[in-house]
User: Fold ABC transporter permease from Streptosporangium minutum.
Amino acid sequence: MASLSTGVTAAGLPTGVPAGLGRLAATAGRRVAALGVLAALWEGLPRLRVVDPTFLTPLSEVLAAWWDLLLSGELLDHTQASLIRSLAGFALAIAAAIPLGLLIGWYEPVADLLNPVLELFRNTAALALLPVFVLVLGLGETSKISIILYACAWPILLNTVAGVKSVDPLLIKSARSMGLHPVRLFQKVILPAAVPTIFTGIRLAGAYSILVLVAAEMVGAKAGLGYLITYAQFNFRVPDMYAGILTISVLGLLFNQLLVRLERRFSTWRTT
Assistant:
C-alpha cells in the first residue's frame, strides 16, 4: 500500500486538506486573530495606563459587568425590549418597501409620479426627523417603531427598484417571445433576478434597525439597550455602559449573519 503524504502547503496546512476547506480555515483564523488583537488592546491599554481606565474600562471588567447584568435579568429585559422594537420596525419596512419598490421599478408611470417625493425624503436623515416623530406620535412605542420603519424602508425600497430595473432585458424579451403572461413573467424572471439586490437592501436595513434603535431609545424610553447605555453613562456606571454597547454589537453581527444565510437560501439558483 502506498504511503500517505504528510507534507505541508505554503499556507501551513497538510497537503491532504482540500483547498476550499483550507481557505475557509485561513479566513476564520485571520478573523479570530483580529478579534484577539482587539481584545488584547482593549484589556492592555487601560491596564498599562496608556488610556484612562476610568473612561475605557478593561475588557475583563466589562465582561464581568455584562455577566452580572445577565444574572440579574436586567440585560435580558433591555434586550427583549430592543429586539421587539427593532424587529417590528424592520418587518414593517420589508412589508411596505418591497411591494412599493417592485411597483416603482416595474411600472414607469408610478415611478414618474413618486420619484419627486422619494428624492425629497431619501435625502433626509432619519435621526433628523426623530423630534418630529416624537412630537407627532409621542414618547411611546409608536414613535420608536415608526422611526425604525422610516430608516429601514429606504435601503430596501431603493435596492428593490434598482434590482427590478437592472434585470437583463434579454431575459425579459426571451420570456415574452415564449408567450409568458406578464404576471408569470414577473414571478419567474423579474423577481428572482432582483432578489440579490433586494437582499443587499435588507441587510443594510438590518444594520439601520439597530443603529436608529439606540438613538430612539435614548429619548423617553424606560427600557432597551439604548436606555441602558444612557442610564449607565449618566450614573457613571462605565462597565455597564460598555456592556450595553458590546451587546448591541453582537446582536448586529448575529442579525447580519442570519440575513446572509437567508440570502443564500433564496439565491441558490445563482450557484446552479
Observations:
- The chain has a mean pLDDT of 82.
